[in-house]
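Design job #97: recover the sequence.
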């Protein structure tokens, strides 16, 4: 699709956004470094508080807390698909891409389309809805970050 461009997928936050953010590779390195140092420091601090506690009582909760970034892709995000022609013509292509990802149109209104997973695997699947706002030359897609990455890959083929 030569006439379509995609924005970076950004996570939707409730707090204020930093004016500059590091590149994705730098973010991963910073996350890995903070996880390794932070989890080790946390386990050491818990061990200092109660040296008689079994190591399993300290390490297991710390590691489970460290898994939180693994669920970060399910957090809400936003993607903009910009086109040179009218964006309403792109909705059919979006329908096909969403169908390949396992979504079906749930409701359509003037300027919006909502997609829902056909078979939600667990209760979190109910929060996996994709909402598309159609503007003149842009589609604004909101939903889980992981799904937005897959959608961008589907549309760029």
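Job complete. Output follows.
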């Amino acid at each position: 699709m030569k006439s379509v461009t995609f924005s970076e997928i950004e996570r939707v936050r409730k707090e204020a956004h930093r004016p500059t953010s590091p590149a994705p590779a730098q973010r991963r390195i910073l996350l890995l470094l903070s996880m390794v140092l932070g989890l080790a420091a946390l386990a050491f601090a818990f061990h200092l508080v109660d040296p008689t506690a079994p190591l399993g009582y300290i390490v297991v909760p710390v590691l489970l807390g460290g898994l939180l970034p693994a669920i970060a892709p399910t957090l809400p995000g936003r993607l903009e698909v910009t086109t040179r022609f009218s964006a309403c013509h792109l909705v059919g292509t979006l329908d096909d891409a969403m169908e390949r990802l396992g979504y079906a149109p749930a409701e359509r209104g003037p300027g919006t389309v909502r997609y829902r997973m056909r078979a939600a695997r667990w209760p979190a699947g109910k929060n996996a809805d994709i909402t598309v706002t159609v503007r003149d030359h842009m589609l604004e897609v909101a939903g889980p970050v992981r799904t937005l990455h897959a959608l961008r890959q589907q549309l760029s083929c």
